[in-house]
Amino acid sequence: MSGALGEGDSDSVKRLNRAIRVRPGLDGSMNLPSFASGITVSPSPLHSAVAFRTVVEGAVAGRLSFSNLLDAMFRLEEKLQPDVKEMLIKFLSKQENMEDLIDRLTVVVPATTDEEGIETPNGERERHRYSYVACMLLSNGPIQLRRSLFLNPKHLDRLVRVLGHGKPSDPVVVRYVCRVLHSVLRDSPEDTVRAMGRRNDFIDALLSHIAVTGCPEVCLAMLSTVRCQAELKFGPSNKPVVGMMADSKLVDTLCDKLSSAAENGPLDGTASSTIENCSRVIVGIALRALVIPRYEINEDDTHANYMLKFNRDLSSLDVFTEPAPILRLLDSGLVALAAHDTRGYVLSTALTAVRYLLVTALNGQDSSLSTIRMQLMSVNTCAYEAGIRARIPKLAVVLEHARKGAVAETMWERVENPLGVVRLRILELLTVLLQHCSEATAMAMIEAEVPRILMELFGRLRLNSLLQHFVSSIVEQAFIGRFACLRRSLLIDVRLLDNVMELWEVSMMNRQDPVGNPMNYTGELLRIACGVHDFFKQDSEEAREMRNEIGEETYARFIDLCNGPVAETLNENGPLCSAAELPPRPGDTFGFEGYSGSLGGSLGGSHGSLFLKSRPTGGIVKS
After folding, report:
1. Least confident of 14-23, 254-263, 304-313, 470-479
2. Closest CA to 321 of 312, 329, 334
3. Whether the Cβ atoms of residue 571 and residue 622 lie closer than 8 Å to each other
4. pLDDT in tens, 261-299
5. Which residues form a coiled coil (predicted)?
6. CATH code of residue 532
């Protein structure tokens, strides 16, 4: 298994910290003093700090082997005395012991079996005990150990050569190695990057393990650490890495790996992890590239060639300058959905990445940091938008045709062909595009019949409140936006007024029996009706023209609806009765799942958001 690799070792971080810490017993329980019911359980004498002092003294004197020392550390059940800890760290910091410690990162001892040849219950953990102890010492141990590591180029060279192309094959070991690499990148990025640069194929070797937990974090930390990715706040950038990543074609390689994983269906754990991790790295690298300043080159500059190459390399990592990689993710998702990916996992991942990049870049133009604002103001999203626009027809087909044969059971009724997560992701992207796109993209939506599809889904899936929210948001945005073509499509082609009146009538009928036949879209219908009413109330030339094309009879019935039942409903709902701005609605802020903590857990703890502006209710409130 890859991706969820080493998950049986979930308690490992608790066992060693600052060199040595109390660890769980072999039965998985913590051998800590227990104070329950007044009973104290003492640790085993063989695994106590007193016994460990003897082991350390024996290792220092040469009476015990290095393996004996690591075995004792693995089973240690008490905190060490300061003098023992100092003696241990001093011993481990010696050059020959540091080299041995690095080598032990990849050591997997043979499994312990019983008389019948079956591996013992704790055999998995025992087999990885040396690599585990070496990992915890070098990643979570005292800074003195890592200082001994990165102050000696030979040690760093040895460390960056641990990972080969597909080797080691044990994902648990790879995870341990990545954890150590991430720690030394955090403590001494310049020395570590130089060591990585001395190995020409380091990035290729690292990407061969992209499905393993920890590998994406190393890729991203090579360029810079993360403070808050959604706000484009990163640590100092390691500029030599820009050239390394461009020369190794890192982004293209990640796209190839994602496409390869997406083609081989059905998706297993390794393929799913590869898809998610490739997407995370592509997004993380692209966002870092956005805020790294380019060189301003003068004709007489002696380093002009270097600066030109750096600027070209940086552009190759910037998806807004070179959008082809991120668009490949969309294409791979569409192909996989048509072939075998019934859940739409690949396409959903790609849509999240596309939307997250666009929203974060746009929000960066309002950053609290002037350096980020200035950097983002020069970003041109035209090529990025054009790439998405070219794929709107295919996305519209996916949106219209829900999974055939799929059924969702609810307490009210059986819903056939429900929307599904991937189609909600499409709606989220369309909502974001509508707020910031050009008229060409709005026309592409019209040609793909997106307005018709939205209203049909709104009426069919009456229990899907998320769908109803997105549809009402898109319609509302269309009537306060700058695209007359979209308003015309809704009012004339889709016959929006007739649709609203019909849906309102059905909604009122079902409100009489809400338990047996619920109707969730009444509130969103109010939102649509108010948006259309406010548009006509402006009495602009466009509004008068639309009114003539709709017909006076239809228009009069709609106005009667707004001034009657709609106004009465608004009056019954306190805060909505005033002419002030509408309060925030659930879903007005879009979160970006899957991109946390590390794209906090996976791309920056707080995820960026894009707010839909609330609209004044105008004057349809009945006095």
Report:
1. 14-23
2. 312
3. yes
4. 998 778 888 999 999 999 999 999 999 999 999 888 877
5. none
6. 1.25.10
